[in-house]
Amino acid sequence: MRCLSPPPSFVHSRLDYGNFVLVGLPAYLQWRLQSVLNAAARLVFRQNRYDHVADALATLHWLRLPQRVNFKVAVMAFRVLHVSRHHTGTILFVSPADLPGRRRLRSSSLHQLLVPSFRLTTVGRRTFPVAASLLCNSLQSDIQLSQSLPVFRQRLETFLFYNPSPT
Length: 167
Hints:
By secondary structure, the chain is mainly α. It has helices spanning about 10-15, 25-45, 55-60, 65-85, 90, 105-110, 120-125, 130-140, 140-145, 150-160. The longest helix has 19 residues, at about 25-45.
């Protein structure tokens, strides 16, 4: 495939701007935003409207929209838990090992996060602490135990690229 130079990064910046709003988005709205990403990939490779776009997305190493949203949420959670110098991580996320009566639970040794209680509504599941805890708990332990942000990002992107639905 022949690629245009430079790739249309404006599409990514606009989609990444509101990623936390896109958590748990209905499928018909995800499809609309995915079609924007598909059109950008076709533009890069000068493909026709009806050409299959999967090879173009794979060549560009672009994640599909649900995986892209999960990637951004997980990276933000990693930053809050590991990189942030403030105490916001202890407010948003709680590990079972931090609670006195739960130190011997299997979840405390597996580096799982407690999912905050929420109302069984769409809005409750879409809040950052709930969505990030559920997503982080669904990741493999080698990804969760990454020592630095670049290593975490690389492992997470590889995992999401080859495993379309981690949650």
